[in-house]
Input
Amino acid sequence: MNLTVITLDDDLHAKKALKTHKDFETLLLNHNRLTQLPPALTKFVNLKVLDLSSNCLTQLPEAICNLPLVTLIAKNNNLSNKSLPKSFVMRNSALKELNLSGNQLTHFPEQVLELRQLRYFYAGANRITAISKDIWKMQSLQVLSLGGNQISDVPDSVGMLSQLQALVLCDNVIENLPTSIAHLNSLKSLLLHKNRLRHLPKDIIALKNLTELSLRDNPLVVRFVQDIAMKPPTLMEFAARVVKCTGIPYGPGIVPRTVNDYLQSANCCVNPKCKGVFFDNRVEHIKFVDFCGKYRVPLLHYLCSSKCIEPEPELPQTSGANGYMMRKVLLG
Output
């Protein structure tokens, strides 16, 4: 007899089950009305896959970590941060997949940060407000799914997840993405729809392996060509621009240290026809940029003056494959 799968329909306390519990590797307890886990669960000492989804669980006991689990699915329950075990490190195994979607989590569960071999982490449809800055520790992560939360900020450390292939951040309240996202060289799918994004960092064009990008229901889709009003530069900025553009000598001993530091902070205008610089005052301009040879997406550019804004060339009406890709990006 080589039984490897058991469901709740099979009596966990049955004599047959107790005799063969060492043979079971998969236990499916999903879609029942469980309010707590049966004590007999710990007898399945070789269990690799445990599905607890769609129950009424309010607690995951510490004893669950005595099992050599590779996959733990606990989505669609009533779990809060306090009801999770203090550690998800499993006995004699390394958890590869953890699904906590559809629960009552209010912040990123710090316990998962110690799972250095975790590949798939799902925590969508919760109430998480922030992603841990220490997420860089999860170096084996390939899928990070946090859609349907209340996340407003994405930390720079996300860009250190070198193995990440899918990043799901849709249906949150994110306004900006860090430029470090361009370091995700393995990324294939980036889902950002239903957020508050007004622009994308221009560095995103470095994601050459990206095959899926969803931006629908973001402000950038509705006002991606509007320029943001520019306030008049200060007299200090005017003077500093003149110094930089005309090559007037400056440095320690010539100007005060604070003035020298200010002059060193100059940024070059991205318009290739302009030799100007800017400091605190700039024009923010949304421009369409070819992305991965498949998309044209609105990216934010910084200019020294509104005179540096170049009109977008008129493009033929998109049709066929090109039109489909444009709709896929903006409309999903």
